[in-house]
Amino acid sequence: MSAPLIDKYRKMATFDWRKLKAAVEGEEHVRLKAEVVAKMKSEPIFHRDYRVLSREEHREVVHQRWKKIVEWGLFKDPYSDLENFHALTETLEAYDQGTSARLFLHGNVFGAAVKSMGTERHKELVEKIENNEVCISIRDSAHSHSATHVVVYAQLHVDGKNEGLHGFVIQVRCPRSFQTLPGITIGDMGSKPGCWQGVENGWMEFKNHRAPLSALLNKGCDITPDGKYVTSFKSASEKQSVSLGTLSVGRLGIIAKGMMACTFASTIAIRYSVARRQFGPEKGVENEVPVLEYPLQQYRLFPYLSAAICIRIFQKTFVERFTEYMMRVMMGEKSEELSEFSKEVHALSSGAKPVATWLGVESLGEARKACGGHGFLHMSRLNTLRDDNDPSQTFEGENFMILQQTSNILLGKVRSLGSIDTPMSTMSFLNKNPSKFSSWSSNPVDDVLSAYRYLAYHLLQMTASDANKLKNSGKNAFEVRNEIQVHRAVNLSIAYTEHTMIDWVQKFLEDVEDSTVKNVLQKVLNLFSLFLLERHLATLYITGYASGGKFGEELREKLRLAVAEIKPESMALVDSIAPDDFILHSALGASDGRAYDHIMEEFRKYTNEQPRWVCDLAQFLQKRSQHAKL
Amino acid sequence: MSAPLIDKYRKMATFDWRKLKAAVEGEEHVRLKAEVVAKMKSEPIFHRDYRVLSREEHREVVHQRWKKIVEWGLFKDPYSDLENFHALTETLEAYDQGTSARLFLHGNVFGAAVKSMGTERHKELVEKIENNEVCISIRDSAHSHSATHVVVYAQLHVDGKNEGLHGFVIQVRCPRSFQTLPGITIGDMGSKPGCWQGVENGWMEFKNHRAPLSALLNKGCDITPDGKYVTSFKSASEKQSVSLGTLSVGRLGIIAKGMMACTFASTIAIRYSVARRQFGPEKGVENEVPVLEYPLQQYRLFPYLSAAICIRIFQKTFVERFTEYMMRVMMGEKSEELSEFSKEVHALSSGAKPVATWLGVESLGEARKACGGHGFLHMSRLNTLRDDNDPSQTFEGENFMILQQTSNILLGKVRSLGSIDTPMSTMSFLNKNPSKFSSWSSNPVDDVLSAYRYLAYHLLQMTASDANKLKNSGKNAFEVRNEIQVHRAVNLSIAYTEHTMIDWVQKFLEDVEDSTVKNVLQKVLNLFSLFLLERHLATLYITGYASGGKFGEELREKLRLAVAEIKPESMALVDSIAPDDFILHSALGASDGRAYDHIMEEFRKYTNEQPRWVCDLAQFLQKRSQHAKL
């Protein structure tokens, strides 16, 4: 039975959370996820408590869970059954990113690498990978205990000539005995925080190891029987335009990690903020109000609730566009437009991955603090989640590093301003010299988008102009690129990305049919867009979008108002995004709103413990006491 | 032997790091810390590796270390031997906050509570506490396994009348058998992240427990033999003016935690940034440059290096002022001026604790990301440190919560603007209506302080004016206080605090004699002050300090310049703040600059592990393979 207080908050909403969930996620997705959850609940291996596992225990349980999922046969090629793939991915990612990494990195990412870069001669291996008869890994994240094969990127030297980076697939262990092959040493990287303790990241050393020629992943290149290197790629850039796409697969998945982090943070902290009561207009415990009533608490938490929903919508749209792009690549298309598409996908994924993961990690930190001391307990899951999500900021390239991909592509467009035309139209707004702020419209999102257009346009001009100056002063390209990052290229990439995110969510809303759902989603987007823009307020002043204190004060006022408008909707919004309690696994965030009951239930498991060192302590105190009396 | 590269960076400095260390910390402090470190190195119980301990192992080792320190007799009353106390505190805090908490919370904080609120009848107990014959704890952080006595704050009801919150000291266990006394249940709170896993925070339940009257800590109040409540405090506010001081003891210690977090973050990340080389102006591994050369990397890390030094100087000054105040309290002074002093100490500690701990946690996050994937390994210590420091943000009241103490006190001064006179003079600048920005001076710190004065003054006026409006619209005091926090009272408290921090460090610099040291410390303060102010840029525009983009752009330019000026000094500055390698305990941050050697040395400990579940995996793969062939 739910706590009366949480139900009171649920009743404040103007909409039905199930309808909103269906509109945002799609009915089929919601249904399929529920099926996966039910399956997991029925298997004891997926049950867990709040105990911290050792490295050994952790990895064993992840192995057992991985085995169970493989046995179920749920995991299939994403392109053959996209809906099922997404339902499984999302559920596992929310359940435990470690288990999910083991499954998807093996089967999907590394398998896909062999499939996409390999040829007929790798067909048998691909089948074995897909059927889980071998365990494939990749050098940088070599699965130290379980890998039988690895994908390695290495410089290919033929006849003394370096032909550049190539992919290889190399068998490293016997899949029966699990002994490493001659010349190969594999080790683990030791302890890691959070769920990553359960993932056996390792290192690998090759010393005079001889692999057969078939190890070369030879799509588009090969070594002839007489030892000559041949390639069908006309240029390095043509080769790159294929691999750019591959990179975005991972980034799209990581954007979803950011979304999931915001989902957990806001679910746990907002539900707990209703159970937790502190102070009130009058003295006495009975007058204490739920901390969610405090405007500051709302200001700290609601933006991440809005982020959870908006990043989901953006990411889903992006996946659709990306799938369209991948289909064309797989069909073998080689057009100028597709190469432009590839570049745009790359620019956007390189910007959205940092924006989403920073927000995700930030949300978990804020949620922990907003929950006070109890947020710090392991059973809140907020700490573990922070550890789980922390490396999302350095996965596939440190965030600031990959932001450069976005700004580089945008800077490359400077000369075609006025006629930029990209397949997803995310850069078209740069064609028009945007106007300064004049007045607020009736729609905050339109206002925010106008401000972003100005911001991105001027940051692009300023960054390009700085780059020119540096170049003219004699700096080389490497120096120029490094010296335009701070306050310039970094902000440019972020502004471009956030503009696209907000724009796409706005477009999604246009097609929502149920007016109560549309209405509340508009409130969510208002908050999300004002929250993001407010962080650029100083730069808006610097670029001259507005002057005078009034603009900034009004922007903040609108932001405070947008926060306040979420309050009555907040609990139902949380219900619309929250994973099942079994997946959520947080004593503070359970859907029944009975946080303190769950906390005390857990606490009572540790009643009157007497660890062995207490004897030692008692003796020590007694010795001190005797000594004092002498 | 150090890596040649780190030595090259060391030689760039314009000063001798030992001289700077002595100037900032004091020669005696440096010497005493080295003594403590040497003592710890000589004891095997203080040696550690990079293994993650279980809850049980962790607590046992903390107990053993605590015992060793007690046996050494190093731990004494702070007021009888301040220098030794600080050297021990700082070394233990850097070594492991868990061990340090166990020692200081027992002996210092809880012992001090009994001493300060108790009377003659508690003398024997105080002696036992000081001699470590009993283990004292406090209800909120009850040491679940080891506490024999606890300090409890509870409502005192006498003859049906509630006389308010009072302190009690209650025996909860027999110090011989460690069995709980009748009516008392004690339990643990389960797992916690980082070093706090080693601290046995617990919960306690009293059911019909009868404690003797002597349990009441009866300084200034008592219950007469005929059961009447008497108090010598004339008013609640008089009583409070005593306890306000006690609260700041803890906060001062927590400010130092923020400083220590910045110290670790910048030491580890900056040293690693020299060992780690990536890309370069030309292709080829030999042309790769240390990542510290990247302006963005410098921009991300150097501000926290400057924070480590400036917070230390500020905190040290604050401790001196606070000690002066405490001496007067202990002498029994009861003047209007002392009560004003108490309030000012409270306002400043309530502001500085959030500012310092936020910076500390932020620095560890940034450092981890700036170290890339390897920063994520347990052996970097950055993750553990983040877990260790995370709760510093909610200790003694969640940061936003206690910031209200600062703004409340400042708001109380609004009516006396023009004649504010406090013992530490931290609020005097509010007396003068500050002028807007006109031009930059030759000293960035003066410019920053001017801007802060304007900011704090106007935020105070705006917050007070908002409060009035809300009051006039019929809101009660509780609602008013809550509704003026966002963008107003919060920023006010921070601006006041940061102004004081910068101001005090500037004053400290005036007395530094060695000109090379003074020169580099000025660079450090320039960076610290510009870094802090830049975060208020939007609010500076809103309050009307400046208009037009030029001011903001110039402020950012000065900030970038201040960052660049630190680069040649950075490695020597790190040496001046870095704890001994034994205390630092980071494979990435060792003083020899050989991060990769240390990492590989640790990695090799995990070579060719074959956990038992690998057999299970081999069988599983074989089964899949046989099944596929059928």
UniProtKB/TrEMBL annotation, chains A, B:
GO cellular component entries: peroxisome
A UniProt-annotated Pfam family: ACOX_C_alpha1
Family statement drawn from the similarity comment of this UniProt entry: Belongs to the acyl-CoA oxidase family.
The keyword Flavoprotein is assigned to this record: yes
Residues annotated as catalytic: E396
Pathway the protein contributes to: Lipid metabolism
Cofactor needs: FAD
Domain of life: Eukaryota
Organism: Caenorhabditis brenneri
Acyl-CoA oxidase C-terminal domain boundaries: 446-609
GO molecular function, one term: fatty acid binding
Key words of the record: FAD, Fatty acid metabolism, Flavoprotein, Lipid metabolism, Oxidoreductase, Peroxisome
Protein name: Acyl-coenzyme A oxidase
Residue ranges of every copy of the Acyl-CoA oxidase C-alpha1 domain listed in the record: 245-411
Subcellular location per the Swiss-Prot or TrEMBL entry: Peroxisome
Major site of localization recorded for this protein: other
BP GO terms, sorted: fatty acid beta-oxidation using acyl-CoA oxidase; lipid homeostasis
